[in-house]
Amino acid sequence: MAKQVLIRCGRLIDGTGGPVQQNVTLHLANDLVERIEPGIVSPPSPEATVIDARDRTVLPGLMDLHVHLVNGVTDPREPHILFGMLQSTTQMLTLWATRNVRLLLEAGFTTIRDVSSFMNPGNPEVLALRDAIQLGLVPGPRIVAGGWVSQTAGHRDVFLPRNWVRDPAYLADSPWEVRKVIRRMVRDGVDLIKTSTSGGAGGHGEEIWWRNWTDEELAVLVDESHAYGKRVASHAHSAESVKRAVRAGVDTIEHGIYMDDEAIELLAKQGGTLVPTLAARSERAISHRRKSGSPPHVMRKFEAAQAAGTTSFKKAHEAGVVIAMGTDTGRGLREYFGKNAYELTLMVEAGLTPMESLVAATRNAALALGRGDDLGTLEPGKQADLLVVDGNPLDDITVLEDQGRIKLVMCGGRVAVERS
User: In what order do the strands lie in the sheet with 406-411?
Assistant: First the structure.
């Protein structure tokens, strides 16, 4: 017999961007959405569970498509991020990641995409944690775990100290080396491939305009990843890096700070998705980097990127580029796991409506993962990932930053968090 759950909703935001539904009953069966029925109805049987949310808002579980569960999230007594990472064991990193996913779940995030780390590009800690959550060993959101493929002197590589011994198994400098690294990562169980098509702001020995990969290598990277059904996310700061990534068939553009009109037009035309990570360049992140020992030239890059990134984001939105939520939590935001909904507030401040920001964190995020058939919206046949919120985020998006107002979190039909 199907397990029946009824949620009596005062307001239902289904994640599609459509009108809010008032006073409806959400029927769940066997951890899936079964149907939405007008009115506040009685349970079909005494065995059915009833959740009363008549004075609250029900919406899909949130998604963050750019987190680093183990990147720079080490002992807070060590102020310098890099030193903290270098002295951490893989066992301790796994324990930190376990703590971080619990904070994310308590904040209403039921699916996250981890895009690997500088130290461990094969992402073994997060792969293990993903599997442990699926087995029910530890609580946490659904994890989509990426592996990071880099060239020698690419963005991932130059973040490390010059004399640090690299694992050559994760560096590639020709098309066939690219294919081999991706095949190794697929064998080890990654869900997607992360790469870079530009330099970064956080690396001490790189410039944002640096090219990563030749066009031939980049085309092979996308081809090999897609041959295994793995999507590709590319860190891309410069306008040229966005254009090259889009032309190569990359699925999501991460950051997109210095996009020009041509890059934005190309991204919109090709139907690519922008994951803007506004939080990573916010005052919150910049302040934390100052305190954690980032040198002046790195701080200058981040301060310049703050204004440029907001401008690019606004132009991309106006041009109709698909936007999905991602924060880049970790490293410069390592103290902010569980505060990821701040990204939604920044999106609204930059011009999105509250509904558009919610769609970015639900439907659009699911589509970017290739999971639009089973995640992201509260529609029949989809996973019952949802929140019950005290208040209306369409009136005030910041209610989602207040965990005390997130009264219930359900992930895959199971109540994961419940607050009185």
Answer: 32-38, 21-29, 4-12, 49-60, 386-389, 406-411, 414-418
| Distance separating alpha carbons of residues 108 and 291, to the nearest angstrom | 29
Query: What six digits make up the tokens of 161?
Result: 């100290």
Please give the Cα distance from 340 to 399 (Å, whole number): 12
Task: Find out whether 289 and 299 touch, Cβ atoms under 8 Å.
Answer: yes
Please report how the helices 175-188 and 215-227 are oriented relative to each other, as an axis angle in degrees rounded to 10: 30
Token pair of 4, please? 């029946």
Nearest alpha carbon to residue 130 among 169, 86, 164, 100: 100
Residue range 307-351, pLDDT digits in tens: 888 999 999 999 999 999 999 998 767 788 999 999 999 999 999
Q: Helix, strand or coil for residue 232?
A: strand
Contacts of 141 (CB under 8 A, 6+ apart): 61, 101, 104, 105, 109, 110, 111, 112, 133, 411
Could you give the 3-state DSSP secondary structure of residue 200? coil
- pLDDT bracket for residue 92 (50, 70, 90): confident
Q: Are residues 358 and 344 in contact, defined by beta-carbon separation less than 8 angstroms?
A: yes
Domains and CATH numbers, the chain: 4-60+377-418 (2.30.40.10), 62-368 (3.20.20.140)
The residues, any chain, with a CB within 8 Å of residue 4's CB and separated by 6 or more, are 27, 28, 29, 43, 44, 45, 47, 48, 49
Whether residue 343 contacts residue 278, with contact meaning beta carbons closer than 8 Å, is answered with: yes
CA gap 112, 120 in Å, rounded: 18
- Which residues pair with residue 113 across a beta bridge? 144
